Amino acid sequence: MTVRIEHLVTSGTFSLDGGTWDVENNVWIVGDDHEVVVIDAAHDADAIAEAVGDRRLTAIICTHAHNDHIDAAPALAERTGAPIWLHPDDMPLWKQTHPDRQPDHWLADGQVIETAGADLTVLHTPGHAPGAVCLYDPGLGTVFTGDTLFAGGPGATGRSYSDFPTIIDSIRDRLLILPPDTVVRTGHGDSTTIGAEAPNLQEWIARGH
């Protein structure tokens, strides 16, 4: 059975530092006809569960713990029995949204999460959030970047727990070294490629945000 990537867009709000914004999030489902993982259970557990269907959900992977990426994770876990994975450095953010529910497992840099023939390697890429991770599968030619790298530049670093020099280091040292034709599947908005974004690094640094 061939592994494939499915894409769902869900809508809700992002809240941090006393502000709230309307957002649309990309939810990625990776697997085959029998088992899948969900990357970022955003906003709508019912819609995500419907997209998963009768397949076995083996993991709910959080690229980071901003509320718009994790708000539906406990409900989806309860419905499916799937464990929630988060990098431990994002626990302060996680607790803001889910103070009474811990993640089930900790993500670690270099770890490989396997499902249905996909091998997702965890890349710890702090900056947008301390525990931000990307998930790279060379066989699929894809990296799931959450809010670390978008079409057009780095994720936002103007709020609590974020840092611009750190995200630049993460992108330069962990992402731009990937093959240029690697598809970048982001947490919001359109996909891009490493080759399309790499030439703009100095411009982002000069811009400083």
Mean pLDDT: 97
**How would you classify the helix and strand content by structural class?**
alpha/beta
Count of DSSP helices? 7
Order of helices and strands: EEEHEHHEHEEEEEEEHEEHH
Could you give the distance between the termini? 43 Å
- E-strand count: 14
Read across the widest sheet, the strand sequence of neighbours is 1-2-3-4-5-6
Give start-end ranges of low-pLDDT stretches: none
Note the beta-strand portion: 25-35%
Largest sheet: 6 strands, mixed
Write down the overall geometry. Answer: globular
Radius of gyration (Å): 16 Å
Approximate helicity band: 10-25%
Summarize this structure briefly.
The protein is an alpha/beta fold and 209 residues long. 24% of the residues lie in helices and 35% in strands. It has a six-stranded mixed β-sheet with strand order 1-2-3-4-5-6. A six-stranded mixed β-sheet has the order 7-8-9-10-13-14.
Topology of this protein?
Blueprint: E1 4-16, E2 19-31, E3 35-39, H1 45-52, E4 56-61, H2 67-70, H3 73-80, E5 84-86, H4 91-97, E6 105-106, E7 112-115, E8 118-124, E9 133-137, E10 142-146, E11 149-150, E12 153-154, H5 164-175, E13 183-186, E14 192-193, H6 194-197, H7 201-207
Parallel strand pairs: 3-4, 4-5, 5-6, 10-13
Antiparallel strand pairs: 1-2, 2-3, 7-8, 8-9, 9-10, 11-12, 13-14
Characteristic terms for this protein:
about 210 residues; alpha/beta; six-stranded mixed β-sheet; 7 helices; about 25% helix; about 35% strand
